[in-house]
Amino acid sequence: MKFLPVITVLALTLSLAESLMLCYMASWAVYRNTDGRFDVEDIDPNVCTHLIYAFAGIAVTGEIQVLDPFHDLCADDGDCAYDRFTALKQQNPSLLTLLSVGGWNEGSEKFSTVAGDPALRKTFVDTSIALLKEHGFDGLDIDWEYPTQRGGVPEDKENFVTMLSEFRDALHANNMILTAALTSAKDTIDISYDIPGIAEHLDIANIMTYDFYGTWNNYVHHASGLYAYSGDDNIFQNTDFAIHYWIEGGMPSTKIAMGVPLYATCWTLDVPTQTDYYSPASNPGQPGPWTESEGTLAYYEVCYGQNTEPGRWVIKTADGMKEPYTYRDSLWCSYENHTSVGIKADYAKSLNLAGNMVWTIDSDDFRGKCNDRTFELIRTMVEVFGK
């Protein structure tokens, strides 16, 4: 009887469609102003096969933590976001909803402590299952950034696999699935992950094939290039290398959801007339009007600016690259558009991947301000992969 739930879980995971589209939602997007505000009801429940609510946290004592009780829960006249999120399945019974625990801000030390202690691991698993069942989630996504690093210990590499094994058994026993957000950086993969061990226990591996370059670099480059740029010395920092590295390391292609960012990575050029790759840029780009975050713009902020002030924005694609970049005055941004996400979806299909993953659904053109339809980038990937 132990294996019957697993069969059901795998059917839920793989029979939804020819391809999977996993969409993270940044729960804090609800606090953005005016047209940037994104709440659960702004989701079209038919564009993604899996919706992932980011984030829950983890305590050093092992319990999973609700990070924004007023917004996430119903108690004390709260916003009930967890329940409203899972209720989207009433509109699309094929939809799966997951809760993601971790993220960059959650760090690594608490994960490391819990993963290394059998009693704390049990607490983590038990409290997670209870929270998922209470609110009707269909699974858990683990976003530990990253085992062995940022205050972790070498034993994290093995302990991460053990933790995944225990989660898999508990989740599958409750007819739920297990996914994880995993890096695309070769150095981190080598230090942090036992790929065959991870592959054995995950239903889906969400490979974060973005942030290859960012405002920590003092020059501009594309943050999510499919292929290496001709001028690159480091041939590892691109999607093509990362996906093949995961597959060659032991992750089945059919378990991989290839990540595509729905945000732009932006710098302030040191010399506004120097706009090619590797042009000097010592500072992040100015915040957008709705996301208000230095160095990052939502796709809808980029396309809205381009549409409303076309004379100020220049759009280019570097030789040999598949993704656009855009600049206005001293602001320079790498981003994805209709053409580039279609190319990435076609690439994922050609490698027999499970599908694509996006960070985040609330960064797409969810109000249809730039396009003839809402969620243009996500819909394009689904359509291209499904051809």
Give an account of the 3D structure.
32% of the residues lie in helices and 19% in strands. The radius of gyration is 20 Å and the shape is globular. β2 and β3 form a beta hairpin. With 387 residues, the chain is α/β, with parallel strands linked by helices. The strands form two sheets. An eight-stranded parallel barrel has the order 1-2-4-5-6-7-8-15, surrounded by six helices. Strands 9, 10, 11, 12, 13 and 14 form a six-stranded antiparallel β-sheet that branches.
Pairing-aware structural class of the strands and helices? alpha/beta
Terminal Cα span: 38 Å
- Strand numbers in spatial order across the main sheet: 1-2-4-5-6-7-8-15
Helix content: 25-40%
Number of strands: 15
**Count of helices?**
12
The chain-level mean pLDDT equals: 95
Low-confidence stretches: 1-17
The ordered H/E elements are: HEEEHHEHHEHEHHEHEEEEHEEEHEH
Q: Which strand-content bin applies to the residues?
A: 15-25%
Largest sheet: 8 strands, parallel, barrel
What is the approximate shape? Answer: globular
What is the rounded Rg? 20 Å
Features:
single chain; 387 residues; alpha/beta; 6-stranded antiparallel sheet; 12 helices; 32% helix; disordered N terminus
How is the topology of this model organized?
Blueprint: H1 4-14, E1 20-26, E2 50-58, E3 64-65, H2 69-72, H3 81-86, E4 96-102, H4 109-115, H5 118-135, E5 139-143, H6 156-173, E6 177-183, H7 186-192, H8 195-201, E7 204-208, H9 239-249, E8 256-261, E9 263-268, E10 283-284, E11 296-298, H10 299-308, E12 314-316, E13 325-328, E14 331-334, H11 338-350, E15 355-359, H12 376-386
